[in-house]
Each structure stands twice: as C-alpha cells, then as structure tokens.
UniProtKB/TrEMBL annotation, chain A:
It comes from Mycetocola reblochoni. Residues 79-174 form the Toprim domain. SMART domains: TOPRIM. This is Recombination protein RecR. PANTHER family: RECOMBINATION PROTEIN RECR. A zinc finger (C4-type) spans 56-71. InterPro entries: DNA_Rcmb_RecR, Rcmb_RecR, Rcmb_RecR_Znf, TOPRIM_dom, TOPRIM_RecR. The keyword Coiled coil does not apply. The gene is recR. Belongs to the RecR family.
UniProtKB/TrEMBL annotation, chain B:
Pfam families: SMC_N. ATP binds at G30, R31, N32, G33, Q34, G35, K36, T37. Keywords: ATP-binding, Cytoplasm, DNA damage, DNA repair, DNA replication, DNA-binding, Nucleotide-binding, SOS response. GO terms for biological process: DNA replication; DNA synthesis involved in DNA repair; double-strand break repair; SOS response. The RecF protein is involved in DNA metabolism; it is required for DNA replication and normal SOS inducibility. RecF binds preferentially to single-stranded, linear DNA. It also seems to bind ATP. Belongs to the RecF family. GO terms for molecular function: ATP binding; single-stranded DNA binding. It is found in: Cytoplasm. GO terms for cellular component: cytoplasm. The gene is recF. PANTHER family: DNA REPLICATION AND REPAIR PROTEIN RECF. SUPFAM superfamilies: P-loop containing nucleoside triphosphate hydrolases. This is DNA replication and repair protein RecF.
C-alpha cells in the first residue's frame, strides 16, 4: 500500500479492463515520475471523449455524431445487417473490407454471471430496424463462445417469426495455420461445417 | 512407458535433483517429511496436471521461487521422448514434448501414470465429487477432447445457476426465455458427459473384477455403477443403501430424453432453490461388494482392497488403450496402510508392469519381491544409504 493519492490512482487504474494490480502500479508511477509527460492533454482527452463520443442512434456503434459513418454512408447495402457484440467487432469486420452491409451492436452477450440479460442488450432497437421490410438478411456474428452462442440462439428464436434469412458466421480452421495444431474442438467444428466441393 | 531420467528444479523442497530410473521396481526410502512423495508427485503432476495432495499449483513451486520445472526422459518401446512442464507461480503453465511447445492439457496423452496413495481411501469413503473427479480424469486421458466438454459444462452450469438465482426475485419475460437456452446447452453437454462416463464404467467392470480377485483371492462380486440424478438419484439424500444401480449402458437419445424429463420434474424446486438439481454434476459412482455398497458397509481392509482393485483396473484400461506401453505405477506410501497379505498380493499384481515407483519410510514395509536397490532421500536430496537411518 502506498500513501493516499498514489494508492487512489493505482486503485482507479486497476479498475480498468485488462489492467491488473501490477500494471496499474507501473502506469501510476510512470505518470508520477516521467518528467515530460503531458498529463493535461491526457486528462483533457479523457474528459472530452466522455462528452463527445456518442453511440449511433441506429446501430449502437461508437460515433462522434448522432449517427455513425457507416449508417450515414449511402453506398452501404441496407438490406443486410450484421449483428455483433461490441464496437470493436465492427472495426474487425471493417478491416476485412468484405462486408458492405450495415451493423448492429448489441453491447455485449447474454451472460447471467455478469448480470447481462436480453433486456440489457440492444435487442429491441434491432427488432424495430428489422420491422422495416427492406432488410433481407441478418448475419449473427456474436463470439463463438458459450455466451455468444447463447445470444445467437436467443436471437434466432426471436427472428423465426420474421421472413428474413438468418445466418451465422462459420467456425473452423484458421487460415494460414496448420491442421495438426488445431485443437480438438475447432477441428470438430470444422468437420461439422465442412463445405462440399463436388 | 519407462521413465529413465527425472530432473527437478525448484519443485517443492528440491532446489535441484537429477535422478536415473530404470524399468521394473524403483524404491525410494526416506523418513517422513524428507521429500520422497514430492519426487513422485512431480511425475503425477506431469501426467495429470494436478496433484493428489493440493488443489492449487502454487504449492508445488519452491518457496521464494517464481517457477518450478519438471523434466523427464522416458521411453515408449524403442522411442525416447523428453517431456517438460514449467509450473509458474503466476500465469499459465507451459509444457514441451521433445523441446517443442504443446498445450499443457495434452501432456497426459504422452505421460501416463496410475497413482496409489493413502488419500485413495477417500475414493470409496469420501464425497461423490472425488468419485466424479476419478472417472472424469480417466475420461480425459482416454479422450483429450473431453476436457473441453467438461469445462463448457461447468461454465453453462454457473451461468444457469446464476440465472436461476436471479429469477427468484422475478425477472422479465425475456430473461425467463434465456433459461430455456441454457437448459438446452446443459442437456446437450451433460448428455455427452453421462454417456462418456457410462461407457467407461462398462469398460472398467471386467478389469475391476479380475483385479479384485487378484488382491483378495476371493470373489466378493465387486461392482461399479452410475447413480444418475436424471434417474432420481439425490446426492443430498445420501441413501446409499437403496440406491438404484444402473448397469445398462444407456444410449445418448435415452439419456437426453431422461435429462429433459428430469429437468421438467425438478423445475419448481430448481426455481425455489436457485440451483441446478439434475445433471452429471450431481451424479455419483456406486461401488459395491457382495451386493452391498462399499461406503458404509465394507470394513477398512475391504475398502482398501476395493481401492487397490480400482486402481489396478485403471492401469489395465490404460495399458489396453495405448500402444505406447504400460502406464507407470506409482505406489506412494501405500504399503504402510496394508496388512501383510494385501502387501504381498499387491506386489504380485504390479510386478507385471513395465515400471513401478514405490516410496516408503522403512524398507521393512515393502514385500521382499519389490525390495530393489533403494534410492535414499533426505531433506530434498538424494543421498547415500549411511546418511539415512532406516
């Protein structure tokens, strides 16, 4: 334990995701000891980012305006919606430059342990978007873990009443990897989801 | 398999140890607290990724050190392999086979041991969780993929229990609907676990009968059966005597249907208690002798006979499963627990295996046929005989 304010700072850092007590201590001492560190700019950024960043009114992605750049872009295909857990998943899919449709960010996955149920996710707004008849396909791109699968199953059940094509991202072997190093679960999934060549 | 070399660094009370071993019997003699169990524990850890003495890995790292290393050379027939595991005080452990990294949980596939220890008596006398751990651990060795199924089941169970608890306060319709999703996941994973255990129980029956006959020279009709919570078995009731034995191997479709029906039956109780009441996490193995449960009915000696037979049967199963040779048998301080006749019979039963490691405080406890040239242990070191008073 350190005295007063230093310990407060360490405690505050260790509350951030992915930062343990040791990292928190390192960051705190970096801030305290580094001479030419512009602390004011860091503090200002932290404050402005909270004020200025909004979540897109339509899809829930992070945005500096009411609606995000993707939803505003007229070149995007508005008949396909890709449902993801987090904004960072949008960024990951965007990097592929393969998908030209729109997104919907749920804000997490169903996980009772973390106190997250369907009502805590952006599911109602999704259903409202789908009520617009122009959407023809929904791609469920939640994480391929238990919670992501549970969320996908929940959404699939909700969507059965609508006449929309529902698909799920494939899971299987990583590209550029070696078959022999794949774990049994991944390999098992790859077998299940094999594609016919002839 | 035969372990030819064992090397430890900062493992338990060993700062450093290098040990040459050979096929057949290897005997470790040392007084209590000197570190002979620690030696064999390192091999047990290498082959099961757990210890028979503690649940956390940290205890195996020598005080004041960051990591312990267990390295061993062993042969599978003509093939020589090098296995290594680094146990880190913080962070994940690392494993290697022939100096290339593998996932630690794949180690049991290469290094196989069967441990006999005083703690084993808890298998028949203790809680159901110990028996479930026994059968699941054996399943994982025989089918590595099973460890992922078990881990997923544990996770789903946690999610479902949390949800059931929060439902007690009354929650939204949407929240209620998610329960059925966890129900389905629990059923499909749980069915796989029950089916796997049932197959294994069926496979171990004959070896168990033969091993028991070898240990006591009499047929007391040793039996092993699953008690399934989906068939109405209740762990909390502890009704060992009139438990329905389930000898037939059920197929997955029947298990799944039974699981679903049982969940429906217990739905109200589950909602009231906020707890998942049916599933493989509430099953048990029922051990029997002369048509009576071992727990509560068998004498101390009979219980030991059963445990020894169970372990010998395990060794037999592993030997049969693998073309890599026999598992290494590790007899940690067990002879002191047994009477003279059981000592002799056990000694006879284990001599057929490629390699047997035995620890004892005094040489006199060991039956004569196993008294090979001993290795003496004192204060975490291998020493000359005259340094130890035995």
């Amino acid at each position: 334990m350190y005295e007063g304010i230093v310990q407060d700072l360490i405690d505050e850092f260790s509350r951030l995701p992915g930062i343990g007590p040791k990292s928190a201590q390192r960051i705190a001492f970096h801030i305290v000891q580094t001479e030419n560190l512009d602390v004011t700019r860091l503090a200002e950024l932290l404050a402005t980012v909270r004020e200025n960043i909004k979540f897109c009114r339509i899809c829930g992605n992070v945005s500096e305006q009411e609606t995000c750049g993707i939803c505003r872009d007229p070149r995007r295909d508005s008949t396909i919606i890709c449902v993801v857990e987090e904004s960072k998943d949008v960024a990951a899919i965007e990097r592929t430059r393969e998908f030209r449709g729109l997104y919907h960010v749920l804000g997490g996955a169903i996980s009772p342990i973390d106190g997250i149920g369907p009502d805590d996710l952006s599911i109602q707004p999704l259903m409202q978007r789908l009520a617009d008849a122009s959407v023809t396909e929904v791609i469920l791109a939640t994480d391929p873990n238990l919670e992501g699968e549970a969320t996908a199953t929940y959404l699939t059940r909700l969507l059965t009443t609508l006449e929309i094509r529902v698909s799920r991202l494939a899971s299987g072997l990583p590209v550029g990897g070696d078959l022999e190093y794949a774990d049994e679960v991944t390999l098992g999934r790859a077998f299940e989801g094999r594609t016919t060549l002839r | 398999m035969i372990v030819t070399h064992l090397s430890l660094r900062d493992f338990r009370n060993y700062a450093e140890a290098e040990l040459e071993l050979h096929g057949g019997t290897n005997l470790f003699i040392g007084r209590n607290g000197q570190g002979k169990t620690n030696l064999v524990e390192s091999l047990v850890f290498l082959s099961t990724l757990s210890s028979h003495r503690v649940s956390g890995d940290q205890a195996m790292v020598r005080a004041g050190c960051e990591a312990a290393i267990v390295r061993t050379t062993f042969t599978h027939g003509d093939r020589e392999l090098l296995a290594e595991v680094q146990i880190n005080r913080s962070g994940t452990n690392r494993a290697q086979i022939n100096r290339s990294a593998i996932r630690p949980r794949d180690l049991p596939w290469y290094v196989r041991t069967v441990l006999f220890a005083p703690e084993d008596l808890a298998l028949v006398r203790g809680e159901p969780s110990g028996r479930r751990r026994f059968i699941d651990q054996l399943s994982m060795i025989l089918a590595p993929r099973f460890s992922a199924v078990l881990a997923d089941y544990e996770r789903v169970l946690k999610q479902r229990n949390t949800l059931l608890k929060s439902l007690r306060g009354g929650l939204s319709a949407a929240q209620e609907q998610t329960l059925t999703i966890w129900d389905e996941k629990l059923i499909s994973l749980g069915t796989e676990i029950i089916a796997r255990r049932a197959v294994l129980v069926e496979q171990i029956r004959d070896p168990l009968r033969r091993a028991y006959a070898a240990v006591v020279d009499d047929d007391h009709e040793p039996t092993i059966d699953l008690s399934l919570s989906i068939d109405g078995y209740d762990v909390d009731a502890d009704d060992t005597a009139d438990r329905a034995a389930n000898s037939a191997v059920p197929d997955s479709a029947r298990i799944e249907a039974g699981f679903r029906a049982a969940m429906e039956r217990r739905r109200r109780a589950e909602r009231e208690r906020g707890l998942t009441l049916v599933g493989p996490h509430r099953d048990d193995l029922l051990f029997g002798l002369n048509r009576l449960p071992v727990k509560g009915y068998a004498s101390h000696g009979e219980s030991w006979s059963f445990v020894l037979a169970l372990k010998l049967a395990t060794a037999e199963l592993l030997r049969r499963d693998s073309d890599l040779g026999d598992p290494v048998l590790i007899l940690d301080d067990v002879f002191a627990e047994l009477d003279r006749q059981r000592r002799r019979r056990l000694a006879e039963a284990v001599t057929g295996f490629e390699q047997v490691l035995i620890t004892a405080a005094v040489r006199e406890d060991i039956p004569e046929e196993l008294r090979a040239a001993p290795i003496f242990i004192r204060a975490g070191r291998v020493v000359d005989e005259d340094a130890v008073d035995v």
